[in-house]
Amino acid sequence: MARSPKLSKTRFQSGLQCHKKLWLQIHDHDKATPIGPGQQGIFDQGTRVGEIARLRWPDGILVAEDYLHHYESVETTKKLLSDPNVTAIFEAGFEELGTRVRVDVLTRSNDGDAWDMYEVKSSTSHKPEHDTDVAIQLLVLKKAGLIVSRKSLLLIDRSYVFDGDEIEPDELLYAVDVSSEVDELQSDIREQLEAQQLIIQLPDEPIVEPDRHCSKPYQCDFWDYCTRNKPEHWIFQLPGIRQTQLERWRGQGFEDIARVPEAVKLNDRHSMISRSIQSGDAWVGEGLESTLGTLQYPIHYLDFETFNPAVPVYEYTNPYERVPFQWSCHIDAGDGELAHEEYLADGREDPREEFAETLLQALGESGSIVVYSSFEKSVLTGLAREYEDFSAGLVNIIYRLWDLMRVVRNNYYHPNFHGSISIKSVLPALAPDLDYSALEIGDGTAASFAFQKQAEGVLSESEWAKTNMNLLEYCALDSHAMIRIIQELKNTVS
Question: What is the pLDDT of residues 212-224, one digit of tens each?
Fold first, then answer.
């Protein structure tokens, strides 16, 4: 006989976001987009924060059974709860009301009969989804007969400064008492739980239209599946489109930008995008040619990579402080030759000073510096504040920055942008022979977590050699991509 599907706190949170997401997670999870290295890095970072949180209770005992052995974890937990010598339990397992939960931390309260619970988050602030996460656990614990006194979150304190020796868990993490919020949610959570248990018994997936809820509070991993039959130029791609507009237009029977009725009133940007898609031609702004004419040789095409670990790696850094570790620069001196210079730290020590020094040497004192977005400017501004010796040179670089993303936004749109002007959308539309998909590291998040592993000392020498090569390849493509984009824009106006 097939077992009835079980809820968990993760599945319950999914159900609060979308009933279809919940149903698919239980009955057809193969339709989810595989987890990429960037997302896996986020999960690994959360695990790391959880491990550090346990150091606050040196005498705590870990329930070691994994999620595939939940029944065993429940039995282990019962034994630990009944032992008066046990003062703290990590990953305590419970199953009630058709729902399985693992509690990050349970500590015995002062009176001995009650327990305090802690939910560990790698977030720096209290969010509404944290309360529902704790609330579903509390509902299950109360049904199991546990008396829970205080319900708290453990969050990252961004003001913590790492001394370069050992992470201090009591300083890295701070507690937020959410008892009142969670207690007030109990009746609503019970209703939601009953509704979700009906949903997971359905023979077919619920019909839920994809829209803004798919990314709030978390990006849904069934997005590709749920949007597979949407038009190539779906109205959702219109930048800044409001939820009310999506619902109204869907109700009026159209979702294709190429078929927007003439009676529909669009703002200027949406109207431009619609005309471009309907004609199949790129829109070119009147100011594109003159803007391209402001580029001054030698032209430097510059890209940065940074990482911002929740748990600081280098001395005198804070949680989530952004640390630049790599740059790539292609240089066009105007003589038909193209030079390439690059830098990648080895991760063993704080790379920021060496990063700034090598960058100043490569960029010289004149010529435009092409970047894509304001990201590089914000990194340089931070470095200028941190390192007084390099401040004047870095400020000079900031004044020479030439933001290609802003130029594209104001002066160019291609139907194949699909509403986005990120470099990952613009490049394949203008230079389809250049492709990120073949790279081992294909986006900035993956690059950040790949380097973070090296900085944390978890990579072997051979693993770092491979990662080093992949990082250099990825960053070089980012800087080279801007060359091709500008070439195509120049061809357009010529």
Answer: 999 999 999 999 9
Q: Report CA 324 to chain centroid distance, whole Å.
A: 18
Distance of alpha carbon 90 from alpha carbon 56, whole angstroms: 11
The residue to which tokens 């890295």 are assigned: 172
At residue 54's C-alpha, the angle toward residues 136 and 84, to 5°, is 80
For residue 1, pLDDT over 50 is answered with no
Query: Pairing between strand 148-156 and 283-284?
Result: unpaired
- For residues 213 and 16, the answer to whether their CB atoms sit within 8 Å is no
The mean pLDDT of the chain is 96
Q: Which of 350, 303, 345 is nearest to 327 (CA)?
A: 303
Q: Are 369 and 331 in contact (CB under 8 A)?
A: no
At the top level of CATH, which class does the domain 289-493 belong to?
Answer: alpha beta
CA distance 166 to 154: 19
CATH 3.90.320 fits 7-199, yes or no: yes
Contact criterion met (CB below 8 Å) for 482 and 77:
no
Q: Could you tell me where in the chain the CATH 3.90.320 domains are found? A: 7-199
Residues 241-253 have pLDDT tens digits of: 988 888 889 888 8
